[in-house]
Amino acid sequence: MALMSVEEALSRVTQSVTTLGIEEVPVEQAAGRVLAMDLKARRSQPPADMSAMDGYAVRGSDIAQTPATLLVIGESAAGRPFEGGVGPGAAVRIFTGAVVPEGADTVVIQENTTRDGDRITTTAATAALRNVRKRGCDFLEGASGLKAGRRLTSRDIMLAAAMDHARLPVARRPRIAIIQTGDELVLPGRGTGAPGEIVVSNAFGLAALATRAGAEVTDLGLVSDDLAEIRAAVARALDGSFDLVVSSGGASVGDHDLMAPALRAEGVDLYVHKIALRPGKPLMYGSRGDVRCLGLPGNPVSSHVCALLFLEPLVRAMQGDAAAIVRTAPARLAVGVPANDQRRDFMRAHMEHDPDGSVRVTPAASQDSAMLSVLSAADCLLVRPPFAPAGEAGDPCEIIPFHD
């Protein structure tokens, strides 16, 4: 059977994904959540003409000639505006963030004045309309300030709060169950040191990645390579408590690779299996009803690379994230690389940034899919298309930078 392309597999994984509903959260808890509806300003910012400097609010026409002497008739401070108006020949002492009084249209900074009692004299020219933040110059009431599908940053939270929103509509987080299979696996700190033991690592990386993408993760624990036990774990994960089931291990076709039979036995339709991808060829994907299932390889690097390429975009798409798909970035090879075969290759690599802003990338010497030390030391994946010819140092290439 021909291997499915990475592009086709990703299309099948993310196609027809719908968001899981909307919930409201306090604005202070919304960072990292995906906005579910366009957010409009409930007020204008600033709500009135405001001073951008400490100085004196005046009529621009009164200071057209320098020096100009004006009568100080009051003071306007932030939160304590001057109640009157500014007529010809008058000035109001004003501070940054204070409302510009009616009649004034310009602020002369205090460094450009001298004061004698209740009179000031300008000592340098100030153009009319200077040093004033006009009402609504940041945003106007009713304006759409944040669009649905945006993953909210700390900066977005500031804007939402300034637009007078105490609570924000966000997409519900996907609920994910993780199943890790393998007779050889033991939990960190729980092993005996026997030669056949392997300390489990995949589930922790998958949970961290899915949580970063916005999911709520439940680890269903280690499951032995037994069809009945795997079916029981899958059945538990499909009981309606979760939106997505993610397994690691048992995805290939060996005698002990039982995840695909277990999923099918529990009514899961698999429509992705075996990808033209390295590392990660055995990846599986399917669904039963509204619950989606993603089966990842057991080799640690394969599992994590597949999670970066498929799990994270899927979790983001389930929240309506407008930036769900993994994006590549341009770079240049720092060394030569051999020609590629029919599989799309994602090689662990290291970036170097040149003074001109360009990036040179060097793949790790070993690309063994079990070597976590190489994955941890890498800061990007070098992407090699199927049947790519041999590349030389300086040739253009594509990379996927790590962001954690």
TrEMBL record:
<dbReference type="Pfam" id="PF03453">
    <property type="entry name" value="MoeA_N"/>
</dbReference>
<dbReference type="InterPro" id="IPR036135">
    <property type="entry name" value="MoeA_linker/N_sf"/>
</dbReference>
<dbReference type="Pfam" id="PF00994">
    <property type="entry name" value="MoCF_biosynth"/>
</dbReference>
<keyword id="KW-0500">Molybdenum</keyword>
<dbReference type="InterPro" id="IPR005111">
    <property type="entry name" value="MoeA_C_domain_IV"/>
</dbReference>
<keyword id="KW-0501">Molybdenum cofactor biosynthesis</keyword>
<keyword id="KW-0479">Metal-binding</keyword>
<keyword id="KW-0460">Magnesium</keyword>
<feature type="domain" description="MoaB/Mog">
    <location>
        <begin position="177"/>
        <end position="317"/>
    </location>
</feature>
<dbReference type="InterPro" id="IPR036688">
    <property type="entry name" value="MoeA_C_domain_IV_sf"/>
</dbReference>
<dbReference type="InterPro" id="IPR038987">
    <property type="entry name" value="MoeA-like"/>
</dbReference>
<dbReference type="InterPro" id="IPR036425">
    <property type="entry name" value="MoaB/Mog-like_dom_sf"/>
</dbReference>
<dbReference type="Pfam" id="PF03454">
    <property type="entry name" value="MoeA_C"/>
</dbReference>
<comment type="pathway">
    <text>Cofactor biosynthesis; molybdopterin biosynthesis.</text>
</comment>
<dbReference type="InterPro" id="IPR005110">
    <property type="entry name" value="MoeA_linker/N"/>
</dbReference>
<dbReference type="GO" id="GO:0061599">
    <property type="term" value="F:molybdopterin molybdotransferase activity"/>
</dbReference>
<dbReference type="InterPro" id="IPR001453">
    <property type="entry name" value="MoaB/Mog_dom"/>
</dbReference>
<comment type="similarity">
    <text>Belongs to the MoeA family.</text>
</comment>
<protein>
    <recommendedName>
        <fullName>Molybdopterin molybdenumtransferase</fullName>
        <ecNumber>2.10.1.1</ecNumber>
    </recommendedName>
</protein>
<keyword id="KW-0808">Transferase</keyword>
<comment type="function">
    <text>Catalyzes the insertion of molybdate into adenylated molybdopterin with the concomitant release of AMP.</text>
</comment>
